Recover the amino acids of this structure.
């Protein structure tokens, strides 16, 4: 009939996959059995991505934990992820720190490097530049501890690779909003 | 009120405190203490089903027809896994259920004990929430919390898994208090600013439509009343999803009929051409929207829903209002009255003229026959002969379900129970049993297909045991008709495994259970046969032999837009309407 021929419905996360963004979600949950399984199951069940996930109790008396999730998707998909998380009964609050803006994100990594001679010197020099600490040393190896943004850690690992990278353990991202306010 | 008692006694006590008088269940080793506690009281009536899936659907039928929370009790392992389909069904259709499952004793959990399964793990994805109760101290709180969670916000099923040792343990019971969960508080009131904005959009609309859904029913009868008021005040046309039928009276002249895949021509075209869509408690499901990028292309959309995740999930809307539809409708009706708002009357008049042209296509029409019973005719007669009674209709899944939705007309909410989201064959009979228990004096009819009815036929035994006079009205086309229709549509009429071979004699089957069997194949005798069914004081299986090859139309084929429907007069071209892309869809 005489329907106006304006553009089709603008939205469908399934159709427009071009504008994928990475967001950090901070999820405050009751620290009860199964809560992590609920959150992770939601992501797998609905086909969302998890790029990094950390979880730890943050308020012992109140039994609250914070789960920090780095996920990627279109802005619409990420909005939907937030709402789906809020539907879980033990979830108190979901904050999209990327939307809030200016959040501080940190990750801790332990990086084991093996080598002799010139390589050891080079490893220590780089560690110094990245403010990494030596937390274990043998005549053949170092373990460095490093905190920072994920991309800084990525960079450090890439630099260590040709020198003699043996193993890496990373915590995943923990994040918090700047300023005085509680979110 | 605190009392010392066992965990099993707490379960029964909590059911009493929650006002539960009907409990559907099936016993087993891991719930024996609870069954023992049930034995020693008579407030809660236990209804013994014949399969745990039946318990879940019966609880759904009870809930949907009464507005109360449905409750079931099953044993560990197979008892719990048998209930899964019903739980998933309730999750998809937002039905409040509390399902109590037995579990092996806590010290055996994780040891692959006899009849152990990870019930909370398995049901995590098919419940709104679930609990494993590890300590007797937690049991009273969890029992009450479960009822709160199941019934508040967007309703859904909740599982409480109780290990056997916790059922035996003694602790202090406490009655429910006001705040039933420490943090879960769904938002009920809609944002005033947004509601005001919605009112402005409504007064300006030239081609508006109310698109309503199961949320109106879930919100309670007041929401249906308010919807009627708002429709009367605005003069806007109203359509509804399968789940929302009855919220708005089918006899009202503003009613367009159901929308979606098997909706009417006028409802779907109104959706496609509207300039303002007001979605009230519906969720833009794929059966409704058809092709997303051609969905209501020229419209502004308002979406009222209690579940924030429903808003902007499938379709981006212009104005989302989070809240219980009852509350929001109340605000809207009040604002419309107090501010003496007015719709754009002249534009509306033109819109109705257009709608009447669509209506004139008579998209639910079908070619009658004097020789065979047309399934649509059977539903029409069933409707005519039962409409003046207090009648509750349940369905199975398939063509008969859609014909029931199209040709049985509902005036009141809570009278129509069907498996919409999950599309579960086997739902109808147990749901009818649940509805009959909630309304002992009413006429309850399961409109069934000959294939679906066999999925939970064992519940005939339950119906007989409790003298429930449910009527099973089978539109027997000797096919899984909806499958056959899709095979005609998509697969060149190669009817792979969709013929109902080796059917039982349904009349004898009814009699074998102790019920009444009626068969009819002659249109001229149909009324008398239906009347006989209605008049029977017993459970009846009515084997209505209908046209085997009838297609359910109109239809929006998968992958098509609302204005690309197949109408009854296009039946002959069925095989050539869906393109390759559409075949990928379901
Ligand atoms: C449990 C389950 N299995 C399979 C299906 C797929 N399915 C949908 S309709 C249908 C045929 C139903 O046949 P019948 O009950 O005779 O109804 P009719 O379509 O003939 O009216 C089938 C197999 C389903 N919906 N549910
Ligand atoms: Mg059939």
């Amino acid at each position: 009939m005489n329907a106006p021929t304006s553009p089709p419905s603008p939205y469908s996360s399934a159709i427009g996959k071009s504008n994928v963004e990475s967001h950090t979600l901070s999820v405050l949950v009751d620290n009860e059995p199964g809560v992590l399984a609920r959150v992770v199951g939601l992501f797998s069940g609905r086909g969302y991505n998890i790029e990094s996930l950390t979880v730890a109790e943050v308020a012992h008396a109140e039994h609250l934990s914070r789960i920090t999730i780095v996920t990627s998707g279109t802005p619409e998909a990420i909005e939907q992820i937030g709402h789906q998380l809020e539907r879980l009964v033990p979830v108190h609050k979901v904050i999209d720190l990327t939307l809030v803006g200016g959040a501080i994100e940190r990750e801790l990594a332990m990086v084991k490097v093996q080598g002799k001679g010139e390589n050891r010197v080079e490893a220590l020099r780089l560690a110094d530049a990245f403010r990494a600490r030596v937390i274990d040393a043998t005549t053949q190896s170092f373990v460095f501890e490093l905190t920072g943004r994920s991309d800084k850690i990525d960079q450090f690992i890439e630099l260590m690779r040709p020198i003699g990278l043996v193993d890496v353990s990373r915590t995943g991202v923990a994040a918090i909003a700047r300023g005085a306010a509680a979110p | 009120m605190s009392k010392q008692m066992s965990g099993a006694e707490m379960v029964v006590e909590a059911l009493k405190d929650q006002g539960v008088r009907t409990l559907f269940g099936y016993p087993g080793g891991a719930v024996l203490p609870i069954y023992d506690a049930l034995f020693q009281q008579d407030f809660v009536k236990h209804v013994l089903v014949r399969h745990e899936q039946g318990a879940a659907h019966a609880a759904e039928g009870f809930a949907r027809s009464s507005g109360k929370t449905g409750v079931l009790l099953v044993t560990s392992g197979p008892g719990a896994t048998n209930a899964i389909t019903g739980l998933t069904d309730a999750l998809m259709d937002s039905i409040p259920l509390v399902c109590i499952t037995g579990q092996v004793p806590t010290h055996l959990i994780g040891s692959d004990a006899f009849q152990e399964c990870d019930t909370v793990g398995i049901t995590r994805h098919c419940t709104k929430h679930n609990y494993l109760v590890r300590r007797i101290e937690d049991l009273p709180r969890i029992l009450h919390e479960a009822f709160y969670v199941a019934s508040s916000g967007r309703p859904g099923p909740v599982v409480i898994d109780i290990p056997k040792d916790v059922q035996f343990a003694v602790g202090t019971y406490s009655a429910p208090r006001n705040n039933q969960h420490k943090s879960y508080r769904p938002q009920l009131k809609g944002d005033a600013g947004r509601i005001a904005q919605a009112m402005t959009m409504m007064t300006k609309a030239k081609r508006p439509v109310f698109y309503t859904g199961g949320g109106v029913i879930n919100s309670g009868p007041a929401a249906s009343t308010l919807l009627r008021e708002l429709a009367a005040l605005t003069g806007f046309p109203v359509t509804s999803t399968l789940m929302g039928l009855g919220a708005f009276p089918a006899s009202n002249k503003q009613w367009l009929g159901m929308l979606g895949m098997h909706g009417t021509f006028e409802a779907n075209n109104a959706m496609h051409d509207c300039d303002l869509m007001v979605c009230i408690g519906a969720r833009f499901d794929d059966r409704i929207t058809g092709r997303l990028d051609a969905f209501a292309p020229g419209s502004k959309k308002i979406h009222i829903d209690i579940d924030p995740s429903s808003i902007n999930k499938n379709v981006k809307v212009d104005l989302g209002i989070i809240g219980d539809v009852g509350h929001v409708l109340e605000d809207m009706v009040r604002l419309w009255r107090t501010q003496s708002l007015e719709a754009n009357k002249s534009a509306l008049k033109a819109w109705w003229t257009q709608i009447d042209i669509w209506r004139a296509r008579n998209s639910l029409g079908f070619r009658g026959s004097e020789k065979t019973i047309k399934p649509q005719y059977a539903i029409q007669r069933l409707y005519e002969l039962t409409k003046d009674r207090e009648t509750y209709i349940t369905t199975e899944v398939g063509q008969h379900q859609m014909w029931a939705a199209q040709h049985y007309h509902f005036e009141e909410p809570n009278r129509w129970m069907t498996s919409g989201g999950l599309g579960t064959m086997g739902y109808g009979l147990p749901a009818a049993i649940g509805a009959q228990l909630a309304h002992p004096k009413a006429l309850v009819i399961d409109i069934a297909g000959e294939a679906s009815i066999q999925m939970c036929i064992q519940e005939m035994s339950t119906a007989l045991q409790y003298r429930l006079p449910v009527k099973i009205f089978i539109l027997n086309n000797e096919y899984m008709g909806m499958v056959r229709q899709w095979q005609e549509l998509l697969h060149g009429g190669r009817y792979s495994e969709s013929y109902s071979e080796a059917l039982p004699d349904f009349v004898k089957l009814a009699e074998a259970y102790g019920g009444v069997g009626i068969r009819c194949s002659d249109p001229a005798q149909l009324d008398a046969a239906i009347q006989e069914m209605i008049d029977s004081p017993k459970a009846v299986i009515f084997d209505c032999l209908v046209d085997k090859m009838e297609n359910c139309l109109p239809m929006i084929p998968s992958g098509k837009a609302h204005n690309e429907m197949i109408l009854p007069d296009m039946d002959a071209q069925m095989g050539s309407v869906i393109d390759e892309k559409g075949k990928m869809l379901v």
